[in-house]
Amino acid sequence: MSQANQTVAPKENTRGRVLFASMIGTTVEFFDFYAYATASVLVFPTLFFPNATPINAILSSFAIFGVAFVARPLGSIIFGHYGDRLGRKGTLVASLLLMGIATFLMGFLPAAQGHWTVLAPLALVILRFAQGLALGGEWSGAALLATENAPKNKRAIYGTFPQLGAPVGFILSNLIFVVLQTTLTAEQFLAWGWRVPFYFSAVMVIIGLWVRLKLVESLSFQKVLNEKKVVKSPFSVTMKHHWRPTLAGTFIMLATYVLFYLMTSFTLTYGTTASSVEQGQATAKAAGKTFNAEGFVPGLGIDRPTFLTMLIIGVVFFGIFTMVSGPLAEKYGRRKFLIWVTIGILIFGLAWTLFFGPGQAAAMAGLIVGFTLMGLTFGPMASYLPELFPSNVRYTGSAVAYNLSSVIGAAPASFVAIALWSAGNGSTTGVGIYLAIAAVLTLVALFLTRDTKDVDMEEFVE
Question: For the Major facilitator superfamily (MFS) profile domain, which residue ranges apply (predicted)?
């Protein structure tokens, strides 16, 4: 056969490269995100809002935490545009770089005092916005990297690997915080110790970039290029022709987002808040600080290193059941499997006060149950959401759905939960009802959506 008649097979990514690159990227992204989330509870209220009451300082810190969620839909549009027009690889590299640079610079921010009284919180808002832009494009690209390169009948299994980056990033970030808090004095931790995880992120970014630069485009996107079906404006096409799956995907993710931020940010605040005014006074006295009883709301009174360790134990279950969810979603279908898991989240919300109220042992049980449900609901999302959209708008569609859900689910979750806890004068009943309502909305979306298990992602092009 002559050379002119030979057909060159398109390049494909190896299984190991796909799985590692999809997981390492999201691990770095979520490590950076969690470093901020943890610092927003442990450090930022004191550093950036020193003149506010304790509860208002925490609420202000979480308000800035929510800035990233406002930025995420914009990030999904920007990165989705280039991911659907130019390719997944370059877009994934850009999102990782942006997240890494923003997080690294956070480690250099001064406290809000003197000339930096206004500038320090403002710089924090800007860098937090940059983190949100990056995460807005990261998840969908990583999910597509895994699922578009997966063999038939293994998409849900491959899709759990980028999802696994969430618990792995959380564990790494919080392990560092636990080590720092147990080896440094309170003064050392507040002065410079909290900055270490932000500096460490630079090392992880380098590893992630090295892996991702070795990737080639998926066969699905190569088919879009070969058939000249790249659309000029992926966002416009998505909103005009695929708004129904976008809306459905937004609410399918809702309960997952609310559950996750209640289990991490809220429980850390609630669990480490003094259980009484007397305990708060004693703790403040031991740290050489003045206790402000104004607006005090009782929590569990568990010391921070202990509760962070409890969270890490819970997140181990998150990771395990993320992996368990893949084969189950492949066997029973994404929709049916998620319906049953969401019913479990609904029941967990109604039983919330049985876990978060009695004491440390009950809270540990609640963390295990909650993070188990989190793994089961989060794992299938990397296959389910992308499968709702054709290849030429898949990056944009799945990213917009995922990140719009972050605006209505994740962004207000910690703020609303703290407000409900405060309004209940220490009772967490309202928090559980809030989670249950989110689960009901997700169930409605699931019942109105088709299953996508048998969708051929490579041939699904419009």
Answer: 18-453
CA distance 201 to 189: 18
pLDDT per residue as tens digits for the range 247-288: 999 999 999 999 998 998 889 888 888 776 677 667 666 666
Structure tokens at 194: 């909290």
CA distance 353 to 425: 14
8-state DSSP, 384 = H
Mean pLDDT calculated for residue range 220-226: 81
- Contacts of residue 33, defined as CB under 8 A and 6 or more positions apart, other chains included, come to 68, 99, 131, 135, 169
Q: Which residue in the block uniquely carries the two structure tokens 């084969």?
A: 327
Task: Give the DSSP letter string of 70-92.
Answer: HHHHHHHHHHHHHHHHT-HHHHH
Cα–Cα distance, 121 to 63 (Å, whole number): 11
C-alpha span between 54 and 52 (Å, rounded) = 6
Burial 50-66 (b: 16+ CB within 10 A, else e): eebebbebbbbbbebbb
pLDDT at residue 218 greater than cutoff 80: no
Helix (H) or strand (E) holding 179: helix 155-183
The three-class DSSP label of residue 220 is helix
- CA–CA gap between residue 142 and residue 395 (Å, rounded): 10
- Candidates 94, 128, 62, 24; CA nearest to 268 is 62
Residue 139 corresponds to which tokens in the numbers above? 């998840």
**CA distance linking residue 382 with residue 396, whole number of Å:** 14
For residues 351 and 312, which has the higher predicted lDDT (pLDDT)?
351
How many angstroms separate the CA atoms of 461 and 219, rounded? Answer: 12
Is residue 34 within 8 Å of 312, Cβ to Cβ? no
Closest CA to 261 of 382, 162, 370: 370
